[in-house]
């Protein structure tokens, strides 16, 4: 009988399905892919040490706004890590995928790092591009991603608009005139920041690429400082990169604890050091001090303190038929 009992127990044990490995999907924007390639194994090692269980984090990258719409359409992201808050707000508005109070779930309004918009020019800066005004000169070709699909492109547009407002005493007509002149110099609008990088670096189109600081540094490091150099304008925009748990997905998949821990990791000293090594500006003061040499001081403004906040910007500039559409239609 004992042999039979052991046999039955063994049979039942073998018949049980193997425990599936825990997985998360991080849907993110275009130029963060290298960052998360380092974040993910570091978090997985910490999770293994704390929980005694393995975890795999899968990545999806593309233009920030396009990625957000994919999640709204059914892509089952456990977390979203975007470069502008409207791309998380849309997930609140469309089906309540994300909780309305997502900004209060993590420190710094749920943004673990910031970056700034800078210019990448060809070695020697043959067109003498030093500030925003130079991008609007006749004969200068500028590469930026499409503001309709890319947060990177949207920040470029808003950086150009905001600095023009400051320069011309808050005169919106002058700002519009300047941004229109700049976009007349844009020969192609790629869907995301990485596509714009390819156009500039591999297709050799354009005299300047406007992109985030981390992307410009990555290009210079990987493709050689003998080919490109980074130019910091006198005034630029600060871009906070917000993150959120996709509540409906994690509750369906049973991954809330892991998804929350994953985003918490971004704010930890370990996560912040990885962020800083990838040339994103960290929030943690000790890490800021440790990596200060990587981040030149630059005057900045934000969407909130200069442009009236994201809701106003979305309605005025990027809604269908808004100022951006009008500018592009007539360029």
Keywords:
331 residues, alpha/beta, D-Maltodextrin-Binding Protein, domain 2, 2 domains, four-stranded mixed β-sheet, disordered N terminus
List the helices and strands and how they pair.
Elements lengths: L1 H14 L6 E8 L3 H19 L3 E8 L1 H9 L6 E3 L4 H8 L13 H4 L2 E10 L9 H4 L6 E4 L5 H17 L4 H13 L4 E2 L2 H9 L6 E5 H11 L4 E4 L3 E6 L2 E3 L1 H7 L2 H11 L2 H9 L3 E2 L2 H6 L8 E3 L1 H4 L3 H9 L4 H7 L2
Parallel strand pairs: 1-2, 1-3, 5-6, 5-7, 9-12
Antiparallel strand pairs: 3-10, 4-7, 4-8, 4-9, 4-11
Walk me through what this model shows.
It is a single chain. With 331 residues, the protein is of the alpha/beta class. The chain folds into two domains: 20-112 and 241-294, D-Maltodextrin-Binding Protein, domain 2, CATH 3.40.190.10; 115-239 and 301-329, Periplasmic binding protein-like II (D-Maltodextrin-Binding Protein, domain 2). The chain is 49% helix and 18% strand. It has helices at residues 2-15, 33-51, 64-72, 86-93, 107-110, 132-135, 151-167, 172-184, 193-201, 213-223, 247-253, 256-266, 269-277, 285-290, 303-306, 310-318, 323-329; strands at residues 22-29, 55-62, 79-81, 113-122, 142-145, 189-190, 208-212, 228-231, 235-240, 243-245, 281-282, 299-301. Strands 4, 5, 6, 7, 8, 9, 11 and 12 form an eight-stranded mixed β-sheet that branches.
Helix content: 40-55%
Rg (CA only) = 23 Å
Task: Identify the CATH class of the largest domain.
Answer: Alpha Beta
Assign an overall shape. globular
The helix-and-strand class reads alpha/beta
CATH 2nd-level architecture of the largest domain:
3-Layer(aba) Sandwich
**CATH topology call of the largest domain:** D-Maltodextrin-Binding Protein, domain 2
Number of helices: 17
The total of beta strands comes to: 12
Unreliable stretches: 1-18
Alpha carbon gap, first and last residue: 87 Å
Portion in beta strands: 15-25%
Q: Quick one: CATH superfamily of the largest domain?
A: Periplasmic binding protein-like II
H/E order of the elements?
Answer: HEHEHEHHEHEHHEHEHEEEHHHEHEHHH
- Structurally, the number of domains stands at 2
Largest sheet: 8 strands, mixed
On the 0 to 100 scale, the average pLDDT is 92
